[in-house]
């Protein structure tokens, strides 16, 4: 497919300029004030063209529980989440469709799905998720979420690791399943990438982390994990290793330029140095950090230390949406209250770069994705600057990053294929999806999590809550 975008507004060093952009196949082949028309013409008058953003950390099946979990910290919230997690592959398929649609319509062209697996149907869960992402046409980074220790061991002063292994789920068995998934599904040329993704130090043995590192090396895969999301995890790392989680992960070789780490809320200055030295990426999930009371990640410090930062929505039940533009806005301005020096604050243009190039770099694809550059892949988003929420005309990127943009995405291309046209997803029938999500759910007014009531007294005691 060859097409020419005509008269698109793009940002340049000094303000904005209007250009034509030629795409041949999956690649941007020319950008110039005026190009000879080749292929289909797309009129981009009064539209802003930006590289697609990365929803660099989410958990798509959480869509089934958005809006329902009460205000709880992560450790108790997780206990409730797993009590009610969907156990049907068909539901997993539908929530992946929903996650893809909401990501596309808020400026994203790539999603990193740290995918919660249905026990005993792990490969089927991954297959259904990939099928959904391919149906919508979003670039899919699927990171099967694995762990080999029981949920209670994620809380400090829990029982020791040996007693908390999960019967029938040894590190070796999990790694075998992961290798099968890699062999079946990892197809970068088709826009599907598998990542190794132990959930985090709180629920994973060293054996699992090291095994994931080896698979990542053998198959040239990116690595993902949660890292120090909560105060409890910081305490737990000291209990488990006698040092910080970052020091430990560095010691066992998990940190690298191909490693992206979600949250990174409770890191010391020494930890930050290690992230910079290892060229690891931080994925900032501001809304879930607020929702779960986890804290404010020191994003300005990461940027000053030269650590790459991108944005994620995190799962839809700790957010409780998948609006990437909202996550980027909050994730940018939140830090203004942490540093009096306004020269460190994140500007709207820096936020765009973090969400696009930052996301690409975190997945080791900075050379191929993340900017409007000739030779890069055509993952493009066109915003309608005549939309009421982007008027009157001031600074287009300021309006997009700082405002409350509503239904502003006009068109999206992923790998040169158009997947959104005139504000509507063109690859699947979203009305059908809405009907299915409605039909397969019910209003929930009163549910009780058994595991929360089992864990709560212990959690309150170790966290010093009366
Ligand atoms: Zn997460």
UniProtKB/TrEMBL annotation:
Keywords: Hydrolase. Coiled coil: none annotated. InterPro entries: Amidohydro-rel, Metal-dep_hydrolase_composite, Metal_Hydrolase, MTA/SAH_deaminase. It holds the Pfam family Amidohydro_1. Gene3D superfamilies: Metal-dependent hydrolases, Urease, subunit C, domain 1. Residues 49-419 form the Amidohydrolase-related domain. This is Amidohydrolase. It comes from Floridaenema fluviatile BLCC-F154.
């Amino acid at each position: 497919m060859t097409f020419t975008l005509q008269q698109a507004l793009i940002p340049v060093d000094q303000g904005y300029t209007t250009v034509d952009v030629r795409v041949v196949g999956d690649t941007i082949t020319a950008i110039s004030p005026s190009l000879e028309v080749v292929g289909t013409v797309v009129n981009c008058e009064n539209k802003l063209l930006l590289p697609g953003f990365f929803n660099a950390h989410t958990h798509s099946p959480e869509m089934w529980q958005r809006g329902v979990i009460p205000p709880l910290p992560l450790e108790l919230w997780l206990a409730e989440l797993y009590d009610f997690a969907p156990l049907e592959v068909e539901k997993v398929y539908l929530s992946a469709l929903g996650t893809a649609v909401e990501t596309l319509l808020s400026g994203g062209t790539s999603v990193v799905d740290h995918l919660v697996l249905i026990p005993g149907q792990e490969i089927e869960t991954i297959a259904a998720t990939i099928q959904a992402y391919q149906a919508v046409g979003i670039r899919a980074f699927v990171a099967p979420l694995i762990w080999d220790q029981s949920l209670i061991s994620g809380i400090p002063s829990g029982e020791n690791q040996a007693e908390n292994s999960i019967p029938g789920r040894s590190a070796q068995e999990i790694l075998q399943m992961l290798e099968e998934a890699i062999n079946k599904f990892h197809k970068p040329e088709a826009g599907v990438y598998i990542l190794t993704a132990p959930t985090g130090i709180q629920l994973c043995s060293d054996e699992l982390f090291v095994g994931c590192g080896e698979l990542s090396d053998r198959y040239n895969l990116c690595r993902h994990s949660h890292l120090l999301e909560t105060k409890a995890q910081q305490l737990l790392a000291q209990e488990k290793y006698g040092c910080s989680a970052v020091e430990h992960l560095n010691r066992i070789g998990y940190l690298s330029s191909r490693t992206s780490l979600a949250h990174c809320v409770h890191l010391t200055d020494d930890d930050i140095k290690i992230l910079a030295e290892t060229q690891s990426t931080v994925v900032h999930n501001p809304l879930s950090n607020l929702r779960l009371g986890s804290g404010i990640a020191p994003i300005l410090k990461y940027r000053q230390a030269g650590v790459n930062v991108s944005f994620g929505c995190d799962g839809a039940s700790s957010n409780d949406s998948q609006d990437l533009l909202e996550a980027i806005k909050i994730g940018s301005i939140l830090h203004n209250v942490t540093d009096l020096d306004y020269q460190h604050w994140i500007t709207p243009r820096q936020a765009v770069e973090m969400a696009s190039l930052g996301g690409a770099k975190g997945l080791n694809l900075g050379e191929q994705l993340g900017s409007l550059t000739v030779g890069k892949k055509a993952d493009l988003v066109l915003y309608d600057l005549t939309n009421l929420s982007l008027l009157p005309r001031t600074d287009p990127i300021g309006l997009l990053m700082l405002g409350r943009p509503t239904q502003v995405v006009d068109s999206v291309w992923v790998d040169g294929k158009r997947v959104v046209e005139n504000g509507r997803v063109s690859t699947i029938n979203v009305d059908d999806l809405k009907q299915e999500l409605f039909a397969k759910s019910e209003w929930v007014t009163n549910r009780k999590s058994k595991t929360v009531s089992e864990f709560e007294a212990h959690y309150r005691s170790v966290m010093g809550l009366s």
